[in-house]
Amino acid sequence: MVEALSRFFSKSNRGIGVELAPQRVNVVELRKHRSKIKIESLTTVPVPEGIIVDGHIANSLEMAEIIQEAIAESKTKASRVATSIPGRDAIVRLIPVPSELDDKELHEIIFDHEASLYLPYPREHADIDYQKLDYFVDEDGIEKVKVLLVATPKEVTKTYLQTFQQAGLVIDVLEINSFALIRTIRDQLRLFAPEEAAVLVDIEFDNTEIAIIINGVPQFSRTVPIGTYQLQSAVNRAINLPITRDTTELAQISILGNNSMDTNSTGLTSSNPAVSAMVRVLGELTNELRRSIDFYLSQHQNLEVAQILLAGPGGGLQEIDEFFAQRLSLPTTKIDPIACLSLDVEPDKYPIIQRPGLGIVLGLGMREV
After folding, report:
1. What is the CB-side half-sphere exposure of residue 175 using CA atoms within 13 A?
2. Which pTM was predicted?
3. What is the pLDDT of residues 103-114, one digit of tens each?
4. Cα 81–84–89 angle (5° rounding)?
5. Which conformational region is residue 134 in: left (phi greater than 0), alpha (psi within -120 to 50 degrees), or beta?
6. Which one, of 180, 158, 169, lies nearest residue 86 by Cα?
């Protein structure tokens, strides 16, 4: 099992990250020079429909060929890489256990007892890893330690390992998308107090992953089946165009309709069908986000949401931060991985609107650098 996960919490010395998504493969090579980290190369290759379906690699051989193409185009001499899987395929839980357990006892209690309590499938069908976090004293005065448990179906990790092997690569690190994002914005998360939660909203191609983070650790996660593809499809239907996987036109749409003379009391256009369609889908996503936040806060007193952080290709859309801030009455900002990681890049090489979509791949590269 440990070899299959390669491990979630291990560390190696290469700076190459590979992100697989339904519509693209991103490959980054980071190089550390003295105190600065530079993007040696950042390559994106499109992925045809049907290669990744519902977050799963449906055609391993074709995906391997696409990975090889991306590696070749990047001109990196990669042999060992870091990659990640969608949060929808993972179980992430914080488990309190007695602090006096030694390493062997902890391993036994996690694998033989605790893991089965949280898995929706048999324990033998899961790849599991865990890591100790901080110590605390519970309400009964007993000292305990929080353990971060991560589990994925074996068939998922096996498919990733086989796909990269077919591409001539070895996975050094296999982790969860949200872990890579958290690494990217680690310094930003350190600004929040222990009683403040940050909500990471990763708007990807066909889904949005929501993670509530406290002290840099994901406490709650959920996947909503709304992404940039659903936004683009709604826009195309509204203006009688064929449905397409190309979502680049979304970047041209002003969500709040600031360029329109016909706006309602919320500032949203009522005359532009494309904007109206986009706002309708974003409204559904907002409602799902509100439900997730309310559900978590209802179970945790003395906790407040300090900020919503937008990531993913959809996180960089025009005025989307203002839209969520208006609808949820919560401070909302788009993440800028280049700035968060203080990467040494050429001015204007990576447009601001594209940067939130680089959070995962850069986080993977940082894991290895």
Report:
1. 29
2. 0.91
3. 999 999 999 899
4. 150
5. beta
6. 180
Burial string for 223-244 (b: 16+ CB within 10 Å, else e) reads bbebbbbbbbbbbbebeeeeee
Residue 182 region, left (φ>0) first, then alpha (ψ -120 to 50), else beta?
alpha
Give the span between the Cα atoms of 307 and 189, in whole angstroms: 10
Task: Express each pLDDT in 77-87 by its tens digit.
Answer: 889 999 999 99
What is the C-alpha to C-alpha distance for residues 254 and 251, in angstroms, rounded to an integer?
8
Whether the CB-CB separation of 79 and 12 falls below 8 Å is answered with no
Give the span between the Cα atoms of 182 and 88, in whole angstroms: 16
**Class of residue 364 by CB neighbours under 10 A (exposed 0-12, middle 13-18, buried 19+):** buried
**Cβ atoms of residues 209 and 223 within 8 Å:** yes
Residue type at 117 in one-letter notation: L
User: Phi/psi of residue 359, each to 5°?
Assistant: -60, -40
Res. 258 pLDDT band, cuts 50 70 90: low
Asked if residues 145 and 132 have their Cβ atoms less than 8 Å apart, the reply is: yes
CB atoms within 10 A of CB 120: 9
- CA dist 5 and 131 (Å) reads 13
The greatest distance separating any two alpha carbons of the chain, rounded to the nearest whole angstrom, comes to: 68
Write the DSSP assignment of 288-302 as a string of letters.
Answer: HHHHHHHHHHHTSTT
Question: What are residue 145's DSSP bridge partners?
Answer: 97, 135
What's the rounded Cα separation, in Å, for the pair 42 and 254? 28
Q: Which two tokens stand for residue 283?
A: 């409204």
CA-wise closest residue to 98 among 64, 127, 140, 45: 140
Burial call 141-151: b when 16+ CB within 10 Å, e when fewer: eeebbbbbbbb
Distance CA 232, CA 136 (A): 47
